[in-house]
Write a structure and sequence with these properties.
mainly beta; 17 strands
């Protein structure tokens, strides 16, 4: 059965009568987004370090908000695309999400994962009004305003953390591989770091991850985002089971706001484009 046939078969009946009961429509929220807009494009370099290899440039990753909005379910959406390739581990991943411009929730998500010998493809249609997620393999109930692995990142950039104190945390949930996961991010305070883009004033966080084949502890990662309206991720450092990984922002364009956290000539705001 093709994915199109599967969706038609699985949705037309469940959406209106899941388990024999009518599904009430869920109201959609409205989120004020001051962090990003159409045309934003971020480029990251991935470094790997171990006692055997030393520091190696492993690959690059790209996060792009396409310039044109796309209509899904009668609503305007941001078309988000992520691509990553890794010379060292033979990684070629592609993710896409269509995120409601007002509610900042996904309507459609696709992934194509190629990591060594591992392959994973999936498509998920989110029926946010009726609390359902339909993938290639399942139809599942979801809570209102459910995120996918990409939309949760963009939604998190819009959160108001003005009142968050050092050591406090907040939860973030997302849907992936037919399951709902809840992570937690701890705020570590303000910091100033030096990257390829120069000296940057940042907010520092410690995200919780899933323990498994890659991570052997729940908080192995440190994340720095710009202390300005853009909330750009500029640096991620993570200890993995063998060695460590660093992901650094090396290029950007199409920012919604001035890159004012970048320290230039006494903290003069940087331009909104650097590639």
């Amino acid at each position: 059965m093709t994915i199109k046939s599967f969706i038609i078969f699985c949705i037309l009946i469940p959406v209106f009568a899941f388990q024999g009961k009518p599904l009430a429509a869920q109201p959609l929220r409205t989120i004020e987004n001051t962090a990003f807009t159409n045309g934003e494009n971020l480029t990251f370099r991935v470094y790997y370090h171990s006692a055997i290899t030393g520091k190696v440039t492993a690959g690059e990753a790209n996060l792009e908000v396409k310039k044109k909005s796309v209509t899904k379910n009668g609503r305007e959406t941001y078309h988000i695309a992520k691509g990553a390739f890794n010379f060292f581990f033979k990684v070629d991943d592609k993710f896409e999400s269509f995120i409601d411009e007002q509610a900042l929730i996904p309507w459609y998500f696709t992934r194509r994962t190629r990591e060594g010998g591992y392959k994973k493809d999936d498509e998920v249609s989110f029926h946010q009004n009726h609390g359902l997620a339909v993938s290639r393999n399942s139809v599942k109930r979801i809570p209102e305003n459910t995120q996918d692995i990409m939309s949760v990142f963009y939604y998190a950039r819009t959160l108001d953390i003005a009142g968050v104190k050092q050591g406090e945390s907040f939860p973030l949930s997302f849907y992936l591989d037919d399951s709902l996961y809840t992570s937690k991010i701890v705020f570590l305070g303000r910091d100033q770091i030096v990257t390829e883009l120069g000296k940057i004033n940042c907010l520092k966080f410690k995200p919780m991850v899933l323990k498994g084949e890659v991570f052997n502890e729940p908080y192995p990662m440190e994340l720095w985002i710009t202390d300005d309206l853009n909330r750009l991720p500029v640096l991620v450092k993570s200890a993995v089971i063998v060695g460590s990984v660093k992901i650094e922002l090396i290029g950007y364009e199409g920012l919604k706001n001035p890159f004012s956290s970048r320290v230039i000539n006494g903290n003069k705001p940087a331009s909104a484009s650097k590639k």
